[in-house]
From TrEMBL:
Protein name in the entry: Multiple antibiotic resistance protein marR
Lineage: Bacteria, Bacillati, Actinomycetota, Actinomycetes, Mycobacteriales
Domain of life of the organism encoding this protein: Bacteria
Molecular-function annotations in GO: DNA binding; DNA-binding transcription factor activity
Keywords annotated in UniProt: DNA-binding, Transcription, Transcription regulation
Gene Ontology BP terms: response to stress
PANTHER family cross-referenced by the UniProt entry: HTH-TYPE TRANSCRIPTIONAL REPRESSOR YETL (PTHR33164:SF43), TRANSCRIPTIONAL REGULATOR, MARR FAMILY (PTHR33164)
PROSITE patterns, per the entry: HTH_MARR_1 (PS01117), HTH_MARR_2 (PS50995)
Matching InterPro entries: HTH_MarR-typ (IPR000835), MarR/SlyA-like (IPR039422), Tscrpt_reg_MarR-type_CS (IPR023187), WH-like_DNA-bd_sf (IPR036388), WH_DNA-bd_sf (IPR036390)
Pfam families per record: MarR (PF01047)
Domain HTH marR-type: 6-141
């Protein structure tokens, strides 16, 4: 039996996580939105209107990259710019109703495909996964750009 150190756990599950990630995105009917675009849209949905600098910081990307991604989303009418009420010189971006609808559609579609993947498990394995879901959520919530920059990694 292997030791349960973080390095050993990571070594053991990394290949499976990569495979599941790739299969999840291949199986799901693809939106023509990229992963980073969907991530930005999700942040806007969660946080509301945001400055481009805030989007870049939270996504862990450079300002020009964030600006370009937002410009592409704006061209598709998925986001739009609004004046920052607290600083009239500033601009924020927010999801449009079309952007929110597309984000919800893609999310629901991917949840269905993930549910299909989970449905292939035995009842016992599905129950175990249900127990692990809270740990996975906790890990996802605690892992982010801020935690990377604090550790210097």
């Amino acid at each position: 039996m292997t030791s349960s150190t973080p390095a050993n756990i990571a070594r053991r599950i990394r290949p499976a996580m990569t495979k599941l990630y790739v299969m999840y995105f291949r199986i799901a009917e693809q939106s023509d939105l990229t992963g980073p675009q969907l991530s930005i849209m999700s942040r806007l949905q969660e946080n509301g209107p945001s400055r481009i600098s805030q989007v870049a910081r939270e996504e862990g990307i450079r300002m020009p990259t964030a600006s370009n991604a937002l410009h592409q989303l704006e061209q598709r009418e998925l986001v739009h710019r609004v004046r920052d009420e607290s600083d009239r010189r500033g601009v924020r971006v927010e999801l449009t109703p079309l952007g929110a609808a597309e984000l919800n559609r893609v999310g629901e579609e991917r949840e269905r495909y993930l549910a299909d993947m989970i449905a292939t498990l035995s009842e016992e394995d599905a129950q175990e996964l249900d127990k692990l879901a809270d740990i996975i959520l906790k890990l996802a919530d605690s892992y982010g750009v801020d935690s990377i920059s604090k550790d210097g990694k």
